[in-house]
Amino acid sequence: MINRTQAGLRCYTRQLVRTVKGDLPRESRGTILYEMENLGRQLILVNWDNGISVPVFPDEIEIEYTTASPAM
């Protein structure tokens, strides 16, 4: 099942992540497209700033939550 609740959030890699489309060095940044489950594993599809879109495991990335400042 596809979960889009975190779609649009920014994230970065915690360490080097090797993918079929190339390596993502530590602190590579990207935008989450959606989350999915595959063979009992949670995966997050990310559109990386270097132009590739590949799934990663949740423990390979850190999500950048931004807090909106209150209007004065």
What's the helix count? 0
**Content of β-strand:** over 45%
> Percent range for helical residues?
under 10%
**If you average the pLDDT, what whole number results?**
93
Summarize it.
The chain is an all-beta fold and 72 residues long.
Detail the topology: elements first, then pairings:
Blueprint: E1 2-3, E2 10-13, E3 17-19, E4 22-24, E5 29-38, E6 41-48, E7 53-56, E8 61-64
Antiparallel strand pairs: 1-5, 2-5, 2-8, 3-4, 5-6, 6-7
What would you note in describing this structure?
By secondary structure, the chain is an all-beta fold. It has strands at residues 2-3, 10-13, 17-19, 22-24, 29-38, 41-48, 53-56, 61-64. The strands form two sheets. Strands 1, 2, 5, 6, 7 and 8 form a six-stranded antiparallel beta sheet that branches. A two-stranded antiparallel ribbon has the order 3-4. The chain starts with a strand and ends in an 8-residue tail after the last strand. The mean pLDDT is 93.
